[in-house]
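dumping this here so i dont lose it
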């Protein structure tokens, strides 16, 4: 019971205040890739751990014996129907089951909504992919538009769309930096990270951590793509691109360089730390962040394993 209370307390703390240290780290200019790992793993781990803990609370483990793993659920049902479980525990188990069902229903609804959105835009994306087949491998799909625009669309294969206005209005090095920015979105699976954050937030909007995750993730993927482009092409080229293409329209199913936090992104590119040093620090920082983010789901898994092991031995 103490273990369950400890994990519940930890999960509640993460749900209510877990975003605060991540936002604090972002203000200190911690590598955006490190923070993306933290937001993504904590979001998924929080939801999975919460569902697992609710499920464990619904099991009256201490009130009956079970002689095998497959008899665990049957043993719980027998304990409830024969009245060997106190009424307050039956009530708590019922509430837990209702909460778990509600969470799963909300998650299912959010996922279904996302799938409908993807299907709605699928014909347009497919047309773009067919047009891109005429381009050389690795080259973007150039479209006739006087505005300077570039965006990436996830999928197999990923697709980068750029306008003729981009080549006309930006110097060549800035065009290359823009394309590297969009390639970074595809290589880093940034579209998937944004989708996960938005889906979980739509499913469980009452959780402060999950509510903050979509905006933070969108900002961080842009910072991460800027950093990649700066390493390849130099920060000056990325700054020029950001100044020239800011404010252009963005399709709802893609990520574009011209989107958010332009002034902040330009100032981050002016930081004095060598890019090689930042890149070297990224791996240990990412591993440390991943280890910290996985503490809650690991503790929940360990607790669940011990509960089941106690019931079947």
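and the seq i came up w/
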């Amino acid at each position: 019971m103490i273990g369950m209370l400890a994990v519940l307390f930890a999960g509640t703390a993460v749900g209510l205040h877990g975003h605060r240290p991540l936002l604090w780290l972002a203000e200190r200019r911690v590598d955006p890739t490190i923070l993306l790992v933290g937001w993504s793993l904590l979001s998924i781990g929080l939801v999975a751990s919460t569902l697992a803990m609710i499920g464990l609370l619904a099991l009256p483990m201490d009130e009956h014996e079970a002689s095998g793993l497959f008899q665990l659920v049957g043993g719980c049902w027998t304990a409830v129907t024969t009245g060997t479980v106190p009424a307050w525990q039956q009530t708590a188990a019922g509430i837990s089951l209702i909460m778990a069902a509600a969470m799963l229903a909300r998650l299912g609804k959010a996922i279904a909504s996302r799938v409908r959105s993807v299907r709605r835009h699928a014909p347009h994306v497919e047309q773009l992919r067919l047009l891109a087949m005429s381009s050389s491998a690795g080259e973007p799909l150039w479209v006739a538009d006087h505005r300077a625009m570039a965006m990436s669309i996830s999928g197999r294969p990923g697709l980068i769309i750029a306008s003729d206005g981009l080549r006309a209005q930006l110097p060549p090095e800035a065009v290359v930096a823009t394309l590297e920015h969009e390639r970074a979105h595809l290589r880093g699976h940034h579209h998937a990270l944004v989708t996960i954050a938005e889906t979980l937030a739509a499913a469980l909007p009452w959780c402060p951590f999950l509510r903050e995750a979509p905006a933070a993730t969108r900002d961080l993927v842009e910072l991460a793509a800027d950093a990649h482009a700066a390493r390849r092409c130099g920060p000056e080229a990325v700054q020029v691109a950001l100044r020239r293409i800011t404010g252009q329209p963005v399709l709802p199913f893609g990520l574009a360089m011209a989107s958010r936090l332009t002034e902040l992104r330009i100032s981050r590119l002016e930081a004095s730390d060598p890019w090689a040093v930042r890149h070297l620090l990224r791996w240990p920082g990412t591993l440390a962040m991943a280890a910290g983010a996985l503490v809650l789901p690991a503790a929940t898994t360990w607790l669940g394993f011990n509960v089941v092991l106690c019931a079947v031995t």
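The first helix runs from residue 2 to 17.
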